[in-house]
Amino acid sequence: DVKVTQSSRYLVKRTGEKVFLECVQDMDHENMFWYRQDPGLGLRLIYFSYDVKMKEKGDIPEGYSVSREKKERFSLILESASTNQTSMYLCASNVGGPDTQYFGPGTRLTVL
Amino acid sequence: GENVEQHPSTLSVQEGDSAVIKCTYSDSASNYFPWYKQELGKRPQLIIDIRSNVGEKKDQRIAVTLNKTAKHFSLHITETQPEDSAVYFCAARDSGNTPLVFGKGTRLSVIA
To answer: Is B45–A103 a contact, with Cβ atoms under 8 angstroms apart?
Structure first.
């Protein structure tokens, strides 16, 4: 059974803080993804990675960075959190190619 | 790049009726079309997918149809039940290793 876990379900941070969101998958998946989910906007891709130390920008990378030092772990970093980054953040992974993408439970981030 | 449009954004049906959600895509190279269900407070989960070498796929009360010429695909849920109430997302991608592109979602409410 595939497991994708995220470090926090709920997080509250102050404007200007550096925020780390962690995602871990236990199925040796090559690909990992970070999305944000906002009402009416669906799932928007922030960054993705096809391999260790590799990263690609998605549709909305501004204000975010990522790190993938190990295959199982993909971190999303908000260098200086802003109120417009208040959202639900979802991590996902898959083996590669047209294969099922598995999501983590999400982190609801509030920036005050 | 790929663009996926999903309609309607909200849908209410009486229990026992059928529900249909439609998506269109722009990239004729796309050949993998999954559907995800997200219940309130939970992660999106794959419920059915279809690849471009078939026109229809069924799994109990759920079916997906694909029209490659018109570049649209649809989710059909028959004999709806209250537990079908959720947000449904369609997605598309090509045969390479590009990320899934999601529609904006449909909130389905099944009224008992």
So the answer is: yes
